[in-house]
Specification:
Glutathione S-transferase Yfyf (Class Pi), Chain A, domain 2; alpha+beta; 288 residues; 10 helices; homodimer; 4-stranded mixed sheet
C-alpha cells in the first residue's frame, strides 16, 4: 500500500469524517444552543458522564461522603455528549472547553466553576483536606496526578480512538499508541511494585485519577483490548486495580452518570445517597 | 486507496518504525544504562531540554529570579533525548516516566523529585508564593493549567507528530489532530478576548504553561504550521503571544537548554545569571 497523500497548504475541515463521535468533533469552540443547566439542592453540582474522566470525580465524591463530609453532597446531572449537551450555553459557561466533567461549587459566596478532571480532584482534595498528603508525599502525589493528565490522551484519544472508534483500522497510529499505552502501563507497574498505592502507602487523588483509565484497562473494561495489550503482564497494576475495585465508594462512583452497560450498573443521575439503594433494590427485584 | 489492515490478536512491537524519534520510543520503561546525573551548587537542579514542556520551567525560574527570589537559583543540565539521556539510571530515579523536564529540589532536608511540567510549575508557584493567585482566581488558574496538560498531547504527540515527524503523511490523523488543535486555539482565543491573561488580569502559571505551546504555535515557531492552521485567525491569542514574548524572563527562559536553531538563541546549560550576558556578548562579537 503506497501512501500518496500530501497535506494541502491550508487545512480544510471535512465534517463527518471522523468515525464514532465524528458529529461532536469540530474545529471551533463555544455554544451551539442556548440552554441553562439544571440545578439541584446540594452545594456541589456535577455535570458529567461515566467515562474514565467522569468517574474520577464521582469516585472522589463518594469517597468524601464515605468519610462523613456532608459538604460533599452533590447532584450529578447526565451530560449526553453524543447529543451535544456539552455545547449548551449553560455548560460552556462552566467549561469553555466543552468536555465532561464540569463542576459548579455553590458552597461559597460566589459560584465557582471548576473544569478538567485533575483540577476538580485537586479542588476537592484541598477543600476537604483529604486524599492529598502533606510535605514530600504531596509533591509525589501531584507528580502522578499530572502524569495521569498528560498521559491519558495517548490512551484515550490515541489508542482508544484508533483501536476502537476510527472509521478504519490505521496500522501506523495503532502501533504508535499501543506502544505508548504499554510503556505507560509499565511505568505504573514498576511504581506499584514498590508501593501499595500510586504515590506511596496512602490512597490519594493520584489513585483516583489513574484507576478509571489504567485500572479499567487491565480489568478488561476499556476498548476490549486486554488480550491485544497483554494486560496480564502488568501484575502490580492488576493487584492495585482489584484493590480499588473492591472499595464501595469506587463501586458507587462507577455507577453515577452511567447510561450504558448492565442495567443494574446504571445510575443516570444521582441526587441522594439513597439513589444507590434503590438501584440495589431494582437489581434484587429484577433478579428475583 | 483501500485500507485492508486488520490488527493482530496480540500487539507486537516493530522497532524503528516510528519516524523521527523512533529510536527513543519503546513499549517498556526504566533505565537502559547506569549513569548518575551531574549536580551543581544551586538549590534547584533542572534536567531538561528547550522543548515547549522544558521552556515552561525555565521561563518560570527566570520569572522568579526576576522578582528577586534567590532560592530560585538553578543549574540547568541538558538532557539530549535523541541520545537517550532520559533513560539513564540517574534520570529515571527522578522521573520514572523518562520525559523532560525533571527537577530535583535540594532546598529542604531531603532531596525532592518533581516531574511533569505542570507539577513543577505548581511546586514552584507554591514554594515561592508567586504566579498563582488565591481564592477563586486560584481555582481558575488551575483549571487552565490542567487544560493545558490535558490538551498539549493533541498538539504535540498528535498534530506535531503526524504533520511533522511521522514517516509518511497519513491523512486521517492529520485531519483529526488539526481539527482538535484549531478547536483548542479557538477555546483559548475566546478566553483571551475577555481577559488580558489566560486566567484573568493576573499573569500566572496558566500563561507560563500554555505559552510555550500555543504562543509559539501562533508565532510560527512550531512545526512550520502557521499557514496550514491559519493561526492569524486567533487574534487574541496572537496579542497575548506577543505580550509574553516581550518579557525578558520569557526570552531568557526560551534560551536555556536549547541546542538547536540560531546560535545566539542557544544556551546549552545554565548555571549562573551571567551565562546570558556571556551569550549576549558572544552575539555582539559574532555580529560585529
Amino acid at each position: 500500500m503506497t501512501n500518496t497523500y500530501q497535506p494541502p497548504q491550508i487545512w480544510q475541515w471535512q465534517p463527518g469524517n471522523g468515525g464514532a463521535f465524528a458529529n461532536i468533533n469540530r474545529p471551533v469552540s463555544g455554544a451551539t444552543h442556548e440552554k441553562d443547566l439544571p440545578q439541584g439542592k446540594h452545594p456541589l453540582q456535577l455535570y458529567s458522564l461515566a467515562t474514565p474522566n467522569g468517574a474520577k470525580v464521582t469516585i472522589m465524591l463518594e469517597e468524601l461522603l464515605a468519610l462523613g463530609h456532608a459538604g460533599a453532597e452533590y447532584d450529578a446531572w447526565l451530560i449526553n455528549i453524543g447529543e451535544g449537551d456539552q455545547f449548551s450555553s449553560g455548560f460552556v459557561d462552566i467549561n469553555p472547553n466543552s468536555k465532561i466533567p464540569a463542576l459548579l461549587d455553590l458552597s461559597s459566596d460566589h459560584p465557582l466553576r471548576v473544569f478538567e478532571s485533575g483540577a476538580i480532584l485537586l479542588h476537592l482534595a484541598e477543600k476537604f483536606g483529604e486524599f492529598l498528603p502533606s510535605g514530600a508525599a504531596r509533591t509525589e502525589t501531584l507528580n502522578w496526578l499530572f502524569w495521569q493528565m498528560g498521559s491519558a490522551p495517548s490512551v484515550g484519544g490515541g489508542f482508544g480512538h484508533f483501536y476502537n472508534y476510527a472509521p478504519e483500522k490505521f496500522e501506523y497510529p495503532i502501533n504508535r499508541f499501543s506502544m505508548e499505552t504499554k510503556r505507560l502501563l509499565d511505568v505504573l507497574d514498576k511504581q506499584l511494585a514498590n508501593n501499595t498505592y500510586v504515590a506511596g502507602e496512602t490512597y490519594s487523588i493520584a489513585d483516583i485519577a489513574i484507576w478509571p483509565w489504567m485500572g479499567n484497562l487491565v480489568l478488561g473494561r476499556l476498548y476490549n483490548a486486554a488480550e491485544f495489550l497483554q494486560v496480564q503482564e502488568y501484575q502490580h497494576v492488576m493487584r492495585w486495580a482489584h484493590l480499588l475495585d473492591e472499595r464501595p465508594a469506587v463501586q458507587r462512583g462507577r455507577m453515577v452518570n452511567r447510561s450504558w452497560g448492565e442495567l443494574h450498573e446504571q445510575l443516570h443521575e444521582r441526587h441522594d445517597a439513597d439513589d444507590f439503594q434503590h438501584k440495589t433494590q431494582d437489581k434484587l427485584e429484577t433478579s428475583s
